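Table S7 (text form). Paired inputs.
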Amino acid sequence: MNAKRSYGDGCAAAHALDLIGERWALLIVRELLLGPKRFTDLRSGLGGISANVLTQRLNELEAAGVLVHRRLPPPVPASVYELTAWGRELEPILLRLVRWGVQSPAFRRGAPLNADSLVLSFRTLFDPQAARGRDTRIAFTLDAQPFLATVQDGRLEVRRLGTADGPAPACLETDPTTLLHMAYGRAPLDAMVSEGRVRFQGDRDAIERFLGCFSVPPVAAAGSPVPA
């Protein structure tokens, strides 16, 4: 890495920030946690980034060993970026940052976000206690991107829907911000349907069970010291 960007500190945390501490770097990692993406998909998910800055960050992260750039084989050849096994180890760190950030008094809860951000927030804010007795399986489409969520025995699996996945008992189609308000703000499903913001088919109760599996931590008390 460029020595001019280094903290020059022997702490491994400082070295980690040398690698991923530049603006946009961790958000690029976030965009790749659910699978490979093309350059255009990354730029679409990171609305405020320029093509030049994205190229620079991708090159830096590839040089650091966080991601790789490769071509997918036919029948749909494409050039994509993908996290390395070591890069994927950043997932629990990012999820902890989500949980930490949502407790900030300055965080604007309910603000618009993209599909990947919402899905990763599900992994973060899933509440095993709230999910007790709520085993369910639903497919949901957010801005034309299909996902599959399974809640079983107090655990959540949520990922992109694959061609080999069988049909789910319920299918939901909406936008990320509406689904956010339903899962975290308890916006009623029927109201969202009547407003034209949601379409669903199949087992309505399966959707309701899924929406009840999450809890948002309270806002941190600013200025309160940690008890000794």
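Next pair, protein 2 of 2.
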Amino acid sequence: MHISAPFRLRDVTVLPEWTDYNHHLTESAYLLIMGESSDAFFRSFGVDDAYRAGGHSLYTVETHLRNLREAREGERLNLTIQVLGSDDKRLHVVHEMYNATGGLLATAEQMILHVDMRAGRAAPFPDHIARGLREISAAHAVLPVPRYVGRSIRIPEA
């Protein structure tokens, strides 16, 4: 299986209902678009409707969203996802959103947890999902980790 590094899964056009009174993409729409991109990524390694119907899912437990530039109504956006790491229950990813000319508009770093929904707690990935994540992680290990990954929010001391 060919694994693109990073994953390039989805291009979208900014819809009018995703914009504010200035015709710019709203804060919540940045995350909505990246969330839909996540779902497409999850399906690529087996976490789909049938998998969730079996009682397991992925939950986002932390997101760090950075809005760097404005996206306007009608603008075409390109999205990528890079796997930064995974273990038996967690997946660490970063999304990047670009405009049509390649300008970076936004990023979202996320920690995602595999959950047994019937038990109501975190659970190890089943073997076939873990194997796919190891393959993706290995393919993405050649990519540089973006400098902003792991960054905290704070006001610098004077």
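The longest helix spans residues 27-44.
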